[in-house]
Amino acid sequence: MRYLDEVTFIKESPDSHYDPDLGEWVEKEPIRAVFSANITDIGTDRSAKIFGGIKQGAKVIRMMPLFTMPEYDYIEFDNKKWALTTYRNPSDRNTFILQEVSQ
């Protein structure tokens, strides 16, 4: 299996806060962790099982062996934001099924 795609696990900064003097939310730089992965579209059978029908904007991400899961709030790739739907760890190979998050 080839791991040619890059995915970024993003954890929002704990230092983000509301500044009462400015009267607005101050967003600090999030923590990013970039990894190589194998990304494919979800199959129709699996899509029907998980979502109850064929779902557009769903992907399967397979991580390299010995991958250590970072803390994260969401995942980015293809300049899009993705949320976790299902996670599996068969034979120490982390597999994520993701759904695209509309922004």
Question: Helix and strand layout, with pairings?
Answer:
Blueprint: E1 5-11, E2 17-19, E3 24-26, E4 31-41, H1 44-51, E5 58-63, E6 74-77, E7 80-88, E8 95-101
Antiparallel strand pairs: 1-4, 1-6, 2-3, 4-5, 5-8, 6-7, 7-8
Write down the secondary-structure element order: EEEEHEEEE
**How would you write the strand order of the largest sheet?**
1-4-5-8-7-6
Helical content stands at: under 10%
Main sheet overview: 6 strands, antiparallel, barrel
Quaternary state of this entry equals single chain
Helical region count? 1
Quote the average pLDDT: 84
User: What structural class results from the helix and strand content?
Assistant: mainly beta
What report would you give on this structure?
This protein is mainly beta and 103 residues long. It has one helix and eight strands. The strands form two sheets. A six-stranded antiparallel beta barrel has the order 1-4-5-8-7-6. It has a two-stranded antiparallel sheet with strand order 2-3. Strand 7 (80-88) and strand 8 (95-101) form a beta hairpin. The mean pLDDT is 84.
